[in-house]
């Protein structure tokens, strides 16, 4: 998938696993922490379901397709499926 090609290019890595590890390492270093993608870490992904447009271009991937691709990449990078939560905390306004 193109977005993951971009992740590998951004990090200068040749595999998805090392690209995710490099990305996590970079952000942890910026926060004064050490290490890359931990073997046991719960990950929460907020899916923005409130911004879906009724008419999308035909070449646009649906949210489920993008979410599935992201989840597949994380699992291939070593994150356990049971450690991943996808949610949408929509704000209801009166």
Explain this structure to me?
The protein starts with a helix and ends in a 7-residue tail after the last strand. The chain is mostly helical and 94 residues long. The radius of gyration is 15 Å and the shape is globular. Strand 1 (43-46), helix 3 and strand 2 form a beta-alpha-beta unit. It has helices at 2-11, 16-30, 63-76, and strands spanning 43-46, 84-87. It has one domain. Strands 1-2 form a two-stranded parallel ribbon. The relative contact order is 0.18. It contains three helices and two strands; from the N terminus they run H-H-E-H-E.
Task: Note the topology.
Elements: H1 2-11, H2 16-30, E1 43-46, H3 63-76, E2 84-87
Parallel strand pairs: 1-2
Radius of gyration: 15 Å
Structural class: mainly alpha
Order of helices and strands: HHEHE
Main sheet attributes: strand count, strand direction, barrel closure:
2 strands, parallel
Low-confidence stretches: none
Biggest sheet, spatial arrangement of strands: 1-2
**Multimerization state:** single chain
* Average pLDDT metric: 76
